[in-house]
Amino acid sequence: MRKLFTIVYFIILIAIAVVGLAIGAANDLPVNINLLFINLSVNLATVIAGAVCFGGVYVALLMLYVVIKQKCQIIYLHNKIKNLEADNINILKTQSADILHTTKSSNITDDQGDVK
């Protein structure tokens, strides 16, 4: 299921990039980019494609962060469950040993009144 979502995500990303390039190619206008010490003049198609690629990488990194965080939480919870199960097993062993010890040391009679 996760692979299906990944494939659909990349198909949508490619479709958006193609639409952006088509819009940019239809509007072949230069865009001036003024940074602190650099002045660039690039086509609108290049700006749109760059924005789409940057957005895709950003969303992919966010998805990767969420997946890694969930996997770490799953590992932590599995370890916590194992520790709790081990504690419960030790408690049950001590309780059963106490019960066996008390039943052996006490006098229990059966239905006929005989002492076991």
Write the layout of secondary structure elements.
Layout: H1 2-26, E1 30-34, E2 39-43, H2 44-105
Antiparallel strand pairs: 1-2
Helix pairs in contact: 1-2
**Average pLDDT, to the nearest integer?**
80
Number of helices: 2
Number of strands: 2
Helix % is over 70%
Radius of gyration: 34 Å
> In percent terms, what proportion of residues is strand?
5-15%
What sort of overall outline do the alpha carbons produce when their principal axes are compared? rod-shaped
Give the structural class.
mainly alpha
Distance between the termini: 62 Å
Q: How is this structure best described in words?
A:
The structure is a single chain. The chain has 116 residues and is mostly helical. The chain has one domain. Helices cover 75% and strands 9% of the residues. The chain has helices at 2-26, 44-105, and strands spanning 30-34, 39-43. It has a two-stranded antiparallel sheet with strand order 1-2. Strand 1 (30-34) and strand 2 form a beta hairpin. Helix 1 (2-26) packs antiparallel against helix 2 (44-105).
Summarize this entry quickly.
Helix content is 75%, strand content 9%. With 116 residues, it is mainly alpha-helical. The protein has one domain (2-105).
